[in-house]
Amino acid sequence: MERLRRFIGSGRAFLFSYFIAVITLGSILLALPAAWPGPGGIRIIDAIFTATSAVCVTGLITINTADFTRFGQTVIMLIIQAGGLGIIAFSTIYLVIPVSRMSLRSSTIIQEYYVDQVDFDPKRIVRSIVRLTVAVQAAGVLLLGMAFSRAGIEAPLFTALFHTISAFCNAGFSIFPDSLERFVFNHAVTIPIMVLIIVGGIGFVVQQDLISGRVRGRRRSLHTKAVLAATAVLIVLGTALFFAFERGDGVFAGMSGGRAAMAALFQSVTPRTAGFNTVDQGALSPASLLLTMVFMFTGGAPGSVAGGIKVTTVLIVLAAAVVTGDDNGDIRLGQRRIPASLVGKAHGLLIKALLIVLVSSLLLTITERELLSEGTALVVLLFEAFSAFGTVGLSMGITDSLSDAGKVVIIFTMFAGRVGLISLAMPRTRRRGERLIGYPTGEILIG
């Protein structure tokens, strides 16, 4: 038991081991002949790519999910669930250990994802997470099941279950060859999908805070207010901009005002980590493509199944850019003080994320020289890199055309976007006996 606690104490080791184990098992199962209707199975690189995309809840695919057998689709669905709740499972192992035996580092890691709730009743938090997940997904299956049944879809219950898990976990996998393009005007499908995406993307901290506030009359935390405000602003602003960019001669041309508005709303919700699409991403205008990449990079909320650098990180960075800090470097957000350490952490996370996307894009320009020589635009590769890092899954249609080396680049980018940033965000602890050394202040001119 002590060895287990010592291993669990190494948060990064456990986190990486969990995802690697799921990817390995998923790759083996997807490579089986039972997962593929044709003779033999799929190539191992495609099995690894699909398993990584599923566990990282990305949605990028080299093989259309509709082409897998029911067994293969079930495997993908289970991998998505395991990956989407992976961070929750990771945190749960810490939470079930008595708080009195927790190391300072373990407690700090939990507080990174559950704010200060860990100081109260950790087991209650775990039970709430399980109950909320089951309740939300059950409602999603019911609504989508009825919608798919009315639309004449084969096996509506399984289809509803698959898309509910995929939407709630912000994965973007679909067992329809064209994702959700056939349902662009079917609001009985698109609205539940959007709600599932948003609920999964705001995080369990916010969900629990909202429920506690409604049931017990508690005031909402600053974290909840920040996440909800940022999410609402991004959705409304994105809807307005996508509508303006595509209404004239864009992908919304020919649609009525109401239908174009709903399509714009879906396009605003999905790129911040979900990856479903109701319109062809390759047909978007340059302005819409740029906005989509910004949204993919931003992502959802901390402690959620969403990817990206998170809306709160962007909020703090923007606040630090426009608000003058005090002598300690702290800034004011509303009626609260944001410490300089948190501001520095947000900036550090932003720089690390930009470096990951930059390196991934650079490597893709090297591995995909043939695609570039055939006329593929650089923005298509950039879009792919942003989508992989943000664990979104939107693509301009080149994922299945990538070379094996390019697929490896995307695999590592998805893994870095899902696991890497969380690992980098974990607090660094000093080794026993390591001494703190004070250094003189240095001044460097900037700007």
Strand percentage lies at under 5%
- Strand arrangement within the widest β-sheet reads 1-2
Question: Which bin fits the share of residues in helices?
Answer: 55-70%
Describe the main β-sheet briefly.
Answer: 2 strands, antiparallel
Number of strands: 2
Q: Nearest-angstrom radius of gyration?
A: 22 Å
Residue windows where pLDDT falls under 50 for at least 5 positions: 91-102, 112-120
How many domains? 1
What letter string, H or E per element, gives the SSE order? HHHHHHHHHHHHHHEEHHHH
Q: What's the end-to-end separation, in Å?
A: 54 Å
Q: Estimate the mean pLDDT confidence.
A: 84
| Cα shape | globular
Which structural category fits the helices and strands? mainly alpha
Tell me the number of helical segments per DSSP (H or I, 4 or more residues long). Answer: 18
What does this structure look like?
This protein has helices at residues 2-9, 11-30, 44-55, 70-84, 86-96, 104-114, 122-150, 156-168, 187-202, 204-216, 222-246, 257-269, 286-298, 311-322, 340-367, 369-373, 378-389, 404-425; strands at residues 331-333, 336-338. With 447 residues, the chain is an all-alpha fold. It has one domain (2-425). Strands 1-2 form a two-stranded antiparallel sheet. A hairpin with a 2-residue loop joins strand 1 and strand 2. The protein is globular and about 70 Å long. The chain starts with a helix and ends in a 22-residue tail after the last helix.
Question: Keywords, please?
Answer:
447 residues, 1% strand, globular, two-stranded antiparallel ribbon, mainly alpha
